[in-house]
Specification:
This protein is of the alpha+beta class and 589 residues long. It is built from 18 helices and 17 strands.
Length: 589
């Protein structure tokens, strides 16, 4: 009493699952699934009824056998069990005995006869003699036209089919869906291996590119950020008018405004000029003069990563040397070695000379382009020593413009770039080439380690942009490639999807299967890629001295990109599948 052309999709799915049982001439089973799983594709299957029917049709022993190993007659009986398992109101049987011998044909028709007590069974067959034993009405057709209609048993009143509708339609079982996916993927073999292998190699290659970029950044940071004077910048205050150097109270006034604005910086007197200009005129080791030596004072708070050997200075008679200076001692350990230092300075017109012994207690990192033997001494100890001897910072004022009479110290190496950028926004800050008249200002001279690090960081940024571009380009090409490969997989299995559809499995569940298939392939690529990456990383790390740095965020980002790529790869096959008429697929294949 209803026009099926007017039935809505959800109602139609409900009818296919609950009210209609199809017995197909060519079985329409999923080859890669077992007998039992094929029957469960009828989503409202009665599991107790399944066992009864399997036993009745004599195929119970094949319950967990894959249907591709069954004979035609056995497959036909599996199709019958699937159609009858949930007691449908209408059973449509297309040549149900075509693949069966006489005995099994009788068994099948007796079963259908029993079900016809509560359901309408409509059977198409060429076996007229056998069919006449069981049917109550025979309609003869020739080339699509009814030529005879014989009613063998009549009822007083024709009753419409009663719809049971005990259960609402169900969605595809996740467990059964994954069984199908894994079984179907196994059938792809070489092509699947090729797809996963290529995706794995691309994942591995991109991972190592990220690792290389991260390692380069870490190497630059470790080389420069943790050198002793990376956080120390020479600073001068000045007044343009008359080219006069500022008095100390003006210096403090200007610098206080700088310090008040940035809590992460401090400033101090620049005694490095005194040490290099007037003191430490001659440094000897075992009576041999050490040439090309620079003297620097350390910040009060120094990062422990600066020290590569030994320990920090504890008094003014202890010093640190840089790694370049180590070569002076050849293969000997420099720790504990003593340098003779000739101190020579002028105060109020008088020259003072004295010799002291300094013990090497530690070795510090070098910057990449360091060309000097460097000695690092305690700032606070030397400042106290100079003031105790009546030497103020007056000797640091020379009759020249831009005297670096102060030093700016940034407390943490990781904040240097940020603080420097902020300081350059300070209204008192001026570049030396752009000094206004009649105003007090300060300038900062960037130290060599900071300048070199900024240069390399910018170079790494440029290389990173190029690398990211090629990574993106590669992923786009791989996405297109995987979309077409996945489409070929889907087209090969379109008959399976058509069977799902005709059994009342919703289209969205079928599309979700395709997405899950792509997801499984992507997860396989990711898992194998990560495994190979870890193995190769472990081997490389033990072979080379240079420590590779793993960028966890980059790897997570790459994994997310692969998952996004898998979703995009699913779009093309889904679009192709949506254009197909599922009924026609079964009709013509």
């Amino acid at each position: 009493g209803r026009d099926i052309n007017l039935i809505k999709d959800n109602e139609w799915v409900d009818m296919l699952q609950n009210e209609i049982g199809f017995i197909y001439q060519y079985y329409e089973l999923i080859d890669c699934l077992s007998v039992y799983d094929n029957i469960l594709l009828k989503l409202n299957s009665d599991e107790k009824n399944v066992d009864i029917l399997l036993n009745r049709l004599d195929i119970e022993s094949y319950k967990y056998q894959k249907v591709k190993y069954l004979s035609g007659g056995q497959r036909q009986r599996v199709g019958v069990v699937r159609a009858l398992t949930n007691n449908p109101s209408l059973i449509l049987a297309d040549e149900p005995t075509g693949a069966l011998d006489q005995e099994n044909s009788e068994l099948l028709l007796k079963t259908l006869k029993d079900y016809s007590e509560n359901s309408l069974v409509l059977m198409v067959t060429h076996n007229e003699e056998l069919a006449l034993k069981y049917v109550t009405r025979v309609i003869y057709m020739d080339h699509g036209e009814i030529i005879r209609d014989i009613v063998k048993e009549s009822k007083d009143k024709e009753e419409p089919i009663k719809e049971k509708r005990k259960n609402k339609y169900k969605l595809f079982s996740k467990k059964l869906g994954y069984k199908y996916l894994i079984s179907s993927l196994k059938t792809l073999k070489i092509r699947l291996f090729f797809l996963i292998g290529s995706g794995c190699i691309i994942f591995l290659f991109i991972s190592f590119l990220f690792c290389a970029l991260s390692s380069a950044s870490t190497y630059v940071d470790n080389t420069y950020m943790y050198t002793p004077l990376y956080t120390v910048f020479d600073l001068c205050t000045y007044k343009e008018q008359d080219h006069d150097l500022l008095k100390e109270n003006i210096n403090n006034e200007v610098l206080s405004k700088l310090i008040n604005r940035y809590d992460e910086v401090t400033y101090r007197e620049n005694i490095d000029i005194l040490l290099n200009k007037y003191m430490y005129q001659e440094i000897t080791y075992e009576n041999k003069v050490v040439s090309n030596v620079k003297i620097y004072t350390l910040p009060n708070n120094i990062d422990d990563k600066v020290i590569v050997k030994g320990r920090f200075i504890q008094n003014k008679n202890e010093i640190l040397i840089n790694e370049l200076f180590m070569s002076y001692f050849k293969d000997c350990n420099p720790l504990g070695r003593k340098l003779e230092v000739k101190e020579n300075f002028v105060y109020k017109g008088k020259e003072y000379v004295s010799t002291h012994t300094k013990e090497i207690v530690g070795v510090t990192k070098d910057s990449l382009f360091n060309q000097n033997n460097e000695i690092y001494v305690s700032y606070s100890e030397h400042l106290d020593y100079l003031k105790h001897n009546g030497i103020s910072n007056e000797l640091s004022y020379f009759n020249a413009f831009f005297t670096f009479d102060y030093q700016l110290v940034i407390n943490r190496p990781s904040n240097v770039s940020k603080v420097m950028n902020n300081i350059k926004k300070n209204p008192y800050y001026r570049k030396k080439e752009n000094i206004p008249s009649h105003d007090y200002h300060f300038s900062i001279v960037n130290n060599i380690a900071y300048e070199e690090k900024e240069m390399f960081s910018e170079l790494i940024d440029v290389v990173s942009i190029l690398v990211y571009f090629f990574i993106l380009l590669g992923l786009i090409v791989f996405t297109i490639f995987s979309s077409y490969v996945l489409s070929s997989f889907v087209l090969e299995k379109k008959k399976d999807y058509a069977i799902f559809s005709q059994l009342g499995i919703k289209n969205k569940c079928i599309y979700l299967l395709i997405i899950k298939e792509s997801l499984l392939i992507s997860l396989s690529m990711i898992f194998l890629g990560l495994l190979l990456f870890y193995l190769i990383y472990s081997i490389v790390s033990t072979i080379i001295k240079f420590k590779l740095t793993i960028s966890i965020l980059s790897i997570i980002f790459l994994i997310l990109l692969y998952l996004l790529q898998c979703l995009i790869s699913s779009i093309l096959p889904i679009i192709q599948l949506r254009k197909m008429e599922m009924g026609n697929i079964l009709r013509y294949e």
